[in-house]
Specification:
heterodimer; A: about 250 residues; alpha/beta; four-stranded parallel β-sheet; two-stranded antiparallel ribbon; 10 helices; 6 strands; about 10% strand; B: about 110 residues; mainly alpha; rod-shaped
């Protein structure tokens, strides 16, 4: 019991010290002894050490600094001379924004361009080519996507079951649309995503559905259909900015 | 020419026999050093491309393309470089929005 009392007393002393201005000043001091006395993290292995990571996760889980979890810059100490690189918690799948696009009557390629941009994260200034900073995109009404000209009957999809000469199969756009309508949009978007491990992972964040129902209502996806093919001046991005946490 | 020990030390982390067998390691280390030389110069180019992509995304969120944004900043003699602009876009969105608003105002909304 005496040990417990001493521990309590020491803990209180540390809290008091930290909360005074003297403590705050000493907390920023580099001396290990000072920081140990205050219970501040003295682990000098840098950003990647476990203690620092857990501390940052704790901060972001608690709502971040000033309660602004979503926007990156508010969550950690600023060092403007080091280029921003996302940490694990920035690309956490739980924090990703969901978007929904209605493909009915939209031109296939123009739709796929925008979808791949949002999947990759190129609509965000926190974009990093080596990390998955994008969101999830749900595409509905895939069977009503449009193509111009004579592509409905003339656009051909090739595939192999057996990779041997003479075994290539073909089917036209309208045939594939009758068979598996989701594959049309998936194929278009996959061709626009980077190829490789990261590209494959991004592709799994695309959810295509042939009808107008989708099972992701719980994620409250943001509707970005109106942004297809719009110049930046005319695009109404207020909803996206709000979803990302900018305003 | 460096000793075998030096080469094997440089070859740490290489795949397969390249990190243990000297004749293979020598080739891979030579290549690695050539890549390092080349990429020290490429890094500067790559970073600038990344900053530009980030600024583009950040300004498009407010309806301005990168080309118009940079042109507007130049016309108003804002000398911030792309590195700082991209860092503002990530860490200080309020300041970045102020810059974009300034450009938009100058171009007439």
């Amino acid at each position: 019991r005496r040990d417990g009392e001493r521990r309590e007393k020491r803990k209180m002393e540390k809290t008091v010290l930290r909360n005074t201005s003297l403590g705050a000043a000493a907390a920023t001091s580099r001396s290990v002894r000072n920081r140990n006395a205050l219970g501040v993290n003295t682990n000098t292995r840098g950003n990647r050490s476990t203690n620092n990571r857990l501390e940052r996760l704790r901060v972001s889980a608690a709502g971040g600094v000033d309660g602004q979890v979503k926007w990156v810059g508010n969550r950690r100490k600023l060092d403007l001379n080091k280029a921003y690189y996302p940490l694990g918690e920035d690309v956490d799948a739980q924090k990703k924004v969901w978007y929904v696009v209605d493909a009915e009557g939209k031109t296939l390629g123009r739709l796929a361009t925008m979808v791949s941009m949002y999947l990759r994260g190129k609509h965000l200034p926190t974009y990093s080519p080596s990390m998955d900073t994008g969101g999830y995109v749900v595409v509905i009404n895939c069977d009503k996507v449009a193509v111009t000209g004579r592509k409905e009957t003339d656009k051909v999809y090739y595939y192999h079951r057996v990779h041997r000469p003479g075994t290539m199969k073909t089917e036209t756009f309208s045939e594939l649309r009758d068979r598996i309508p989701e594959r049309i949009v998936e194929r278009a978007v996959k061709g626009m995503l980077p190829k490789g491990r990261l590209g494959n992972k991004l592709f799994t964040h695309l959810k295509c559905y042939g009808g107008s129902e989708h099972p992701h209502e719980a994620q409250k996806p943001v509707d970005i259909t109106s942004l297809i093919d719009k110049k930046p001046k005319d695009a109404d991005l207020a909803a996206v900015r709000q979803a990302v946490g900018l305003e | 020419m460096a000793s075998k020990a030096k080469i094997l030390r440089l070859a740490k982390g290489f795949r397969g026999r390249s990190n243990s067998c000297i004749s293979i390691a020598r080739e891979r280390v030579e290549k690695a050093l050539q890549y390092a030389y080349r990429d020290r110069k490429n890094k500067k180019r790559d970073m600038r491309r990344l900053w530009i992509t980030r600024i583009n995304a950040g300004s498009r969120e407010y309806g301005v393309r990168y080309s118009d944004f940079v042109r507007g900043l130049g016309a108003q003699q804002v000398e911030l470089n792309r590195k700082m602009l991209s860092e503002l876009a990530v860490n200080e969105p309020g300041s970045f929005k102020a810059l974009v608003d300034q450009v938009r105002f100058m171009r007439g909304g």
